[in-house]
Amino acid sequence: MRVKLVVAYDGTNYCGWQLQNNGVTVEEVLNKALSDLCGEPIEVIGASRTDSGVHAYGNVAVFDSNTRIPAEKISYALNQRLPEDVRVQSSEEVAPDFHPRHCNSRKTYEYRILNSSFEQPIGSRYVHFTYRQLDVEKMQEAAKYLLGEHDFKSFCSAGSQVKETVRTIYDLAVTKNGDYITIRVTGSGFLYNMVRIIAGTLMAIGMGEYPPENMKDIIEACERSAAGPTAPARGLALIGIEYEKSPI
Predict the structure, then answer these.
(1) Contact 41, 35 (CB under 8 A)
(2) Using CB atoms within 10 A as the burial measure, which of 42, 186, 191, 231 is most buried?
(3) Which residues are catalytic?
(4) What pLDDT band is residue 247 in, cutting at 50, 70 and 90?
(5) Is residue 63 a contact partner of residue 4, using CB atoms and an 8 Å limit?
(6) Mean pLDDT over the full length of the chain
């Protein structure tokens, strides 16, 4: 059977989702725990290959297994074998052809910023701190230019090998609650470091480095150098993934 997992993790101690040689990854610990649980080699397929230090509340992964454990019970057994900074939120059987990256979906990310005179040690692993005053209204105005379907090549890290850079952003909101600013974006999919580059560009606009209307020129430039810096990983979290059709 094919089993779908919804996975939450604190990405601080991991070198991202995807298996690699230079450190421990979320995919690696899931594979090990599942292989031990099911008594057979297991390799998960993840929906979002989050970068080193990025967090998730609801990443999605699937795996195939001959285990006799009911799919809905796997999450309970698996969490007993996982480190405390990785937890499976749910498990369910899905159709054999369900693929978390190839099915149409809407992904939602949040980038959180602490904008105050001093850092707050509690929760500092999950927010980006800046003491430079951010103009939220300017950030909101700039965000409107990103809505809809565009070529987001300016918001893709130069090292990416992706051929198609057109994506659709369905919703992009910049909100403030006390000293905390949240950039919440929902889209059809995201390029390598796209959300962090959007966050970095919106912060640059919020700091007055250029006016909100420049966002239109940045999109049209299709050049990474036209956009702002890549915001640090710690402020970013994958909130969840919604699929257009039920997996089973």
Answers:
(1) yes
(2) 231
(3) 51
(4) low
(5) no
(6) 95
